[in-house]
Amino acid sequence: MWDNLTCWPATPRGQVVVLACPLIFKLFSPIQGRNVSRSCTDKGWTPLEPGPYPVACGLDDNSSSLDEQQQTMFYSSVKTGYTVGYSLSLATLLVATAILSLFRKLHCTRNYIHMHLFISFILRATAVFIKDLALFDSGESDHCSKGSVGCKAAVVLFQYCVMANFFWLLVEGLYLHTLLAISFFSERKYFWGYIFIGWGVPSTFTMVWTIIRIHFEDYGCWDTIISSLWWIIKAPILASILVNFILFIRIIRILVHKLRAPDVGKSDSSPYSRLAKSTLLLIPLFGVHYITFAFFPDNFKAEVKMVFELVVGSFQGFVVAILYCFLNGEVQAELRRKWRRWHLQGVLGWNPKYQHPSAGSSGATCSTQVSMLTPVSPGARRSSSFQAEVSLV
Fold this sequence. Notes:
Elements: E1 16-20, H1 23-28, E2 35-41, E3 44-45, H2 53-56, H3 68-102, H4 109-137, H5 149-181, H6 187-216, H7 231-259, H8 262-265, H9 271-286, H10 290-294, H11 302-314, H12 316-326, H13 329-348, H14 378-390
Antiparallel strand pairs: 1-2, 2-3
């Protein structure tokens, strides 16, 4: 029997089965080495002894944790929360990706990287829905039996999409740091390296994990994380979070140095407000908030961490799409230009091919699209590129 946390083996009637607490409670409970038990009777398995998992495994010694019915309601609420978050993110990301891909004036390396990040968020949301459908709606949540190929494929797709999403967050950090730290570099050559990091590296780790699971742990639906094999997936993700956090700190230091320049001090806005604004804009783009989850104390409330990781994390794609597409000045200018053009065509029958030569170039241009052949002043390049990245709203 599978009770959503532990697999209870087939047992003759009248016997008691004692098992160690699930690994998830060992991570968060300050008390280690506890066990749970059930008795096999004519009417089936008895309730968990000495109580619900949080109580029995030391997560809540005061018996104030949620009982099993409340836990079911809590998990259902969490599932509803991240379903809403991923659905909202999916809708906004699809529109944002379409906007960046359809308007030529928005085509540049920076926006290409944004598009790949958007696609990784889209794939992650889609993979979550597919995994939930395979695990819960198809009745394959019984980890005691051998899962179907389709269920395992859904979990493999989910692991790949999650890791790819983290690595594209890393690519965003690498690109912006390279833009600021290196005076001249070939964006086109670096772009293919970013493609490899964002899509190639996660596929390598996912393939290795899949092959090892086939040979050593081919049971259930591969959604358990209780063995050391899970580190094949977890370690690269943690490494990307750590590297991106370091890049974030370095970029903030560069930003502070730039804001201390004499010409910046003449701006109407306060340097400190600009720093705070830029920092807040970079946090969702780099996924800096994940560093907080990585260093949560072991005895922290599991329910709180679950809400932050699953529910709050599901809205990250929505926030990124809003900040880096819909509130982007270049995007808004291009949309306004297109709207005026369509409006004139519909109302006045205006033909765009008879427009003044300068009218077609009055819209927004992608400020980071720097020619590979024409030398550009390092100061001008850094100023325009960084301003386009952090001055979006």
